[in-house]
Automatic annotation (TrEMBL):
The chain crosses the membrane at residues 37-59, 79-98. Pfam families: DUF4112 (PF13430). The lineage of its organism: Bacteria, Pseudomonadati, Pseudomonadota, Alphaproteobacteria, Rhodobacterales. This is DUF4112 domain-containing protein. It comes from the Bacteria.
Amino acid sequence: MITDKHFQRLERAERLARLMDRAFRVPGTQIRFGWDAIFGVIPGIGDSVALLPSLYIIGLARGAGVPLSVLLEMAWNMVMDWFIGLFPLVGDVLDIGFKANIRNARLLRTYLEGARTA
């Protein structure tokens, strides 16, 4: 049964995802980026540091009872985001468009909303 605690986890995940993927906007454009992209410009360790909030979002989803298949999809998004970010400059630009944390928060929302109506 889906409870308010599950949706509190979702709110935390969405808040963190926005910080990581959409916190800032390039002036005069619709391009948004977050701390993930900023960390990514630090060669070698930046993308690895950005894994920690992503892991936390997956942990929130696990605690909300998300099935393994969805958790694996979330992990795939996280790994792809990390891998893309490994490529200097090009990876940083692509990383801004991929937004793994937003994708994972959406997966959590989709699961919880579907489970609530089931």
